[in-house]
């Protein structure tokens, strides 16, 4: 990146950045690796507060000596004779640190299994001209642009994004990127980027301060979720006042069958889904528990639980169906016109397609306390991790609880 030239839409800001990079370059001490690329007299390779290029003494005639030439032949140590011929005593200990420190992260192996790190002033995290190393890739200084956009770890996010954010590669600064490119974007593209960047920062902090790992592959899906929620909240603000008053599960009225579903993520990954179908007498006419490895997202799991419940209801011959869930967001989405191509909306369309198997389908949000049986089934699914569907007989554990709660 530091070798980027001003070839693309050069602007005043961009040109000044290219100049700025020369300054930045000076502020970065060189990564040594195996020392074959690093010049003894041309690169600032010795740890110091301010990066310095060492002055070459007159008796050393080779201008382009490489650092590895000062190492012993097997590469495991310094050639003390060569160091003594070139540097003063005090300087030599600094040079040794350039190879010797046990920095964590990805560094070139020195051949003896030892991590050949560099520039680790505190022995834990590397510093580049005062900027800490990126805690996600452990390989580059963590400037704002790197941490939020350019880190190699994040490239999967930009690749999965449904908008084209490829112009980022022509910039080294977020404001500059937006100032030059975003005028042509839709509001949604811009908002999605803001959400993405927020989630990237949150992910970075979770790793750095709580050692919690969020896979970069999940980031775009999370962006879509936030965008979905945003749309739903905007659409349903005035609807939320007309929610149910009852706080008990109620039998459906003939000819309706009622489907109650519940779902939740499982900490180890994936989730558990459960659903129960009851007729106008309150009798169970079908139930299921499903265990899925993917996704690990509460809203998607709730939507999957509804879809599976609809399949079951169709199988047992329901014609009029009331679907109840305590996931308000999912029910709101099912009542809201949505045309975006998110994963949740793909499920939503599948659900609407399933609805055509019935004469009538209603979706209702109910408070959690009215959904206890479904909640119970899903807890069972979470423990059993099995996929089971009952249509002809009620499972024993259910027949015991169904009239108690
Ligand atoms: Zn990084």
From TrEMBL:
Q: Which Gene Ontology molecular function entries are recorded, alphabetically?
A: nucleic acid binding; RNA-directed DNA polymerase activity; RNA-DNA hybrid ribonuclease activity
Per UniProt, residues of the RNase H type-1 domain are 266-376
Database matches in InterPro entries: RNase_H-like_dom_plant, RNase_H-like_EbsB-rel, RNaseH-like_sf, RNaseH_domain, RNaseH_sf
Q: Which UniProt keywords apply?
A: Nucleotidyltransferase, RNA-directed DNA polymerase, Transferase
Pfam families in the record = RVT_3 (PF13456)
Q: What is the top-level taxon of the source organism?
A: Eukaryota
CDD domains the record matches = RNase_H_like
Gene3D superfamilies the record matches: Ribonuclease H-like superfamily/Ribonuclease H (3.30.420.10)
Protein name per the record: Putative ribonuclease H-like domain, reverse transcriptase zinc-binding domain-containing protein
């Amino acid at each position: 990146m530091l070798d980027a030239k001003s070839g693309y839409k050069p602007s005043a800001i961009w040109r000044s950045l290219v100049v700025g990079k020369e300054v930045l370059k000076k502020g970065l001490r060189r990564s040594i690796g195996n020392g074959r690329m690093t010049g003894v007299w041309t690169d600032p390779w010795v740890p110091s507060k301010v990066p310095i290029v060492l002055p070459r003494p007159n008796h050393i005639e080779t201008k382009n000596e490489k650092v590895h030439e000062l190492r012993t032949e097997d590469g495991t140590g310094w050639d003390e004779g060569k160091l003594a011929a070139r540097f003063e005593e005090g300087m030599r200990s600094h040079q040794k640190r350039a190879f010797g420190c046990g920095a964590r992260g990805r560094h070139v192996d020195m051949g003896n299994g030892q991590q050949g790190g560099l520039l680790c002033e505190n022995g834990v995290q590397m510093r580049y001209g005062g900027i800490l190393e990126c805690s996600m890739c452990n390989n580059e200084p963590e400037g704002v642009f790197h941490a939020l956009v350019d880190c190699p770890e994040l490239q999967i996010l930009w690749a999965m994004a449904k908008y084209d954010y490829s112009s980022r590669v022509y910039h080294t600064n977020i404001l500059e990127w937006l100032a030059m490119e975003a005028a042509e974007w839709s509001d949604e593209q811009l908002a999605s980027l803001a959400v993405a960047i927020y989630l990237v920062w949150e992910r970075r902090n979770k790793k750095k301060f709580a050692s919690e790992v969020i896979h970069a592959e999940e980031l775009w899906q999370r962006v879509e979720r936030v965008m979905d929620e945003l749309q739903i909240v905007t659409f349903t603000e005035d609807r939320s006042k007309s929610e149910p008053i009852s706080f008990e599960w109620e039998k459906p009225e003939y000819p309706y069958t009622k489907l109650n579903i519940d779902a939740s993520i499982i900490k180890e990954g994936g989730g558990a889904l459960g659903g129960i179908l009851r007729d106008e007498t309150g009798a169970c006419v079908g139930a299921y528990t499903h265990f899925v490895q993917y996704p690990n997202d509460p809203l998607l799991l709730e939507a999957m639980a509804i879809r599976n419940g609809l399949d079951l209801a169709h199988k047992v011959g329901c014609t009029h169906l009331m679907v109840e869930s305590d996931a308000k967001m999912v029910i709101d989405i099912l009542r809201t016109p949505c045309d975006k191509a998110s994963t949740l909306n793909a499920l939503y369309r599948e659900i609407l397609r399933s609805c055509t198997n019935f004469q009538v389908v209603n979706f209702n949000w109910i408070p959690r306390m009215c959904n206890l049986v479904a909640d119970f089934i899903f807890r069972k699914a979470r423990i059993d991790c099995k996929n089971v569907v009952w249509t002809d007989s009620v499972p024993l554990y259910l027949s015991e609880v169904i009239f108690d709660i």
